[in-house]
Write a structure and sequence with these properties.
This protein is an alpha+beta fold and about 160 residues long. It is built from seven helices and nine strands, in the order E-E-H-H-H-E-H-H-H-E-E-E-E-E-E-H. Helix 1 runs antiparallel to helix 2 and helix 2 crosses helix 6.
């Protein structure tokens, strides 16, 4: 079943239910606000893995989130597919994590570092980024986030350099 949840400030969500027919990558593309994320997945060679059986949860930065990166950061990452793949894998966890299933604490990513999940009356955050929408795919869940996230010891400028 495909569900699209719009997470509100109080943590409640509106859910539209239909049958999921697309994998995570195709679901992100069809949503229309993850074109940069989907293109990055292809460039880094991660798209095929995200189209596999799963299940996975992708904390997908929206196109607006990518535009908030320091100037030149995204372009620099595109020139280094291995670094780009590491950044993208940090946005992905094994298993299905719906907003209602998330608990505060650390969650291991496919990149190998843990992300921090915060759950409060104002909603769900991962490494400080707000979860704003949830889309269910055939092989997992796409959680829209409003920022590009990195492991604690990484810096965006260092990645772009």
């Amino acid at each position: 079943m495909k569900q699209s949840k719009h997470v509100t400030a109080m943590g409640s969500a509106k859910t539209d239910s239909t049958i999921a027919t697309k994998n995570i990558v195709d679901t992100a593309i069809a949503a229309g606000n993850f074109t940069t994320f989907a293109a990055a997945l292809r460039t880094a060679g991660v798209a095929d893995a995200m189209a596999a059986k799963g299940p996975f949860t992708a904390f997908a930065p929206t196109d607006v989130a990518f535009k908030q990166l320091p100037a030149g950061t995204y372009e620099a990452l595109l020139k280094e597919p291995a670094k780009l793949a590491a950044v993208l894998k940090y946005h992905i966890v094994a298993g299905r994590l719906s907003a209602s299933d998330m608990r505060p604490g650390e969650q291991m990513t496919l990149q190998g570092s843990a992300m921090t999940i915060e759950v409060s009356a104002s909603g769900v955050r991962v490494n400080g980024a707000h979860v704003t929408q949830e889309l269910v795919a055939t092989n997992g869940i796409v959680q829209a986030i409003d920022a590009v996230i990195l492991p604690k010891d990484w810096q965006l400028l260092a990645v772009a350099a």
